[in-house]
């Protein structure tokens, strides 16, 4: 059986399969197969979209179920992706929510453009030409909050400009609030480890840079220190002695004694920490975690540096996976 209708995540396993088993007196996965195959069709071009899809997604109860359904799509072009049932169910909502988000985003930018007297369509046409960052998977990775010297500042600036023009931008206004809630989520998670030493792998807002301005992990560290936690930090790109200018001013303002918290290596940090918080990704961090984490330690992963948590010693917590 293949379900095509859009249903909330968990519906197939929690409702559909039990109903089928109860009425058929047979067992799913043994006597019959079940798949979730979401449709990605637009009104007005559904036939064309069906025969020329960007992707075909098969959420499968088991491999045998997926194999049978995939046979039906043999002559359909494009990639076929096999996944778990809940992934396929959730994906359809992710697709449609993102489409709605794009329409609203373009409208809010357009409303601002109208008031300041520039061509909104030209702005968005140029915006869409950037397929390295704007129309790409680059930023679409669940994880920790954004930070740095550009995104928070520019969001505040454009929403302030909108307010001066009396232009409502509820979507743009909500971005910083949602980002703040992601930081708060990490704080809540770490508060559950009261009495244990915290080690932070990564201090800058982004791997490969020493830019500490509005680094969200700094806010987390400052909060945990204020709550009485012992804290250690390691970032191979951040040398407190070499910080200059606005970077130096920022760290002196936020955590003036941060130099005393710095470790000389990822291995040293892991050895002396009870809970290891990974806020940026690097091969050094990955290797140190794989070979250095003990059974009595906890890894709180904010960037999904660990793809196979089962292979890691100790307890593992992914921030949103």
Tag the structure with descriptive keywords.
alpha/beta; 321 residues; 5-stranded parallel sheet
Describe the overall structure.
- The structure is a single chain.
- The chain has 11 helices and 9 strands.
- It has 321 residues and is of the alpha/beta class.
- Strand 3, helix 3 (63-71) and strand 4 (80-84) form a beta-alpha-beta unit.
- Helix 4 packs across helix 5 (120-127).
- The longest helix has 32 residues, at 85-116.
- It is globular.
- The two termini are 28 Å apart.
- The mean pLDDT is 94.
Share in β-strands: 5-15%
Quaternary organisation? single chain
What's the alpha carbon Rg, rounded to whole Å? 24 Å
Shape: globular
In DSSP terms (H or I, runs of 4 or more residues), the helix count works out at: 11
- The termini sit apart by 28 Å
Low-confidence stretches: none
Structural class: alpha/beta
The overall average pLDDT, rounded, is 94
Largest sheet: 5 strands, parallel
Helical amount: 40-55%
Total number of beta strands: 9
- How are the strands ordered across the major sheet? 6-5-7-8-9
- What's the helix-strand series? EHEHEHEHHHHEHEHHEHEE
Any chance you could write out the topology, listing elements then pairs?
Layout: E1 2-3, H1 11-24, E2 35-36, H2 46-51, E3 56-60, H3 63-71, E4 80-84, H4 85-116, H5 120-127, H6 151-164, H7 170-191, E5 198-201, H8 216-226, E6 231-234, H9 245-254, H10 266-272, E7 275-278, H11 283-292, E8 298-301, E9 315-318
Parallel strand pairs: 1-2, 3-4, 5-6, 5-7, 7-8, 8-9
Antiparallel strand pairs: 2-3
Helix pairs in contact: 4-5, 6-7, 7-8, 10-11
């Amino acid at each position: 059986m293949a379900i095509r209708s859009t249903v909330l995540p968990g519906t197939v396993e929690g409702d559909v399969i039990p109903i089928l088993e109860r009425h058929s007196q047979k067992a799913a996965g043994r006597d019959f197969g079940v798949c979730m195959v979401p449709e990605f069709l637009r009104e007005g071009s559904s036939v064309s979209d069906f025969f020329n899809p960007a992707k075909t997604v098969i959420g499968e109860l088991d491999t045998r179920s997926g194999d049978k359904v995939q046979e039906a799509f043999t002559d359909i072009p494009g990639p076929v992706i096999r996944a778990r049932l809940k992934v396929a169910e959730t994906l359809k909502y992710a697709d449609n929510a993102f489409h709605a988000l794009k329409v609203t985003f373009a409208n809010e930018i357009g409303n601002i453009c109208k008031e300041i007297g520039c061509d909104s369509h030209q702005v968005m046409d140029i915006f869409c030409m950037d397929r390295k960052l704007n129309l790409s998977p680059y930023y679409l990775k669940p994880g920790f909050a954004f930070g740095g010297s550009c995104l928070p500042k520019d969001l505040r600036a454009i929403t302030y400009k909108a307010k001066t023009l009396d232009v409502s931008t509820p979507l743009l206004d909500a971005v910083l609030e949602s980002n703040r809630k992601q930081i708060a989520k990490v704080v809540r998670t770490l508060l559950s480890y009261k009495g244990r030493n915290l080690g932070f792998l990564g201090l800058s807002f982004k791997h490969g840079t020493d830019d500490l301005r509005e680094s969200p992990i700094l806010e987390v560290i400052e909060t945990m220190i204020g709550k009485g936690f012992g804290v250690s930090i390691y970032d191979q790109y951040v040398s407190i002695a070499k910080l200059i200018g606005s970077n130096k001013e920022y760290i002196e303002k936020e955590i003036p004694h941060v130099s005393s918290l710095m470790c000389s290596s990822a291995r040293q940090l892991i050895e002396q920490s009870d809970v290891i918080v990974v806020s940026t990704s690097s091969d050094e961090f990955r290797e140190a975690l794989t070979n250095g984490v003990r059974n009595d330690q906890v890894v709180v992963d904010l960037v999904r540096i660990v793809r196979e948590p089962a292979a890691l010693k100790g307890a593992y917590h992914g921030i949103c996976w």
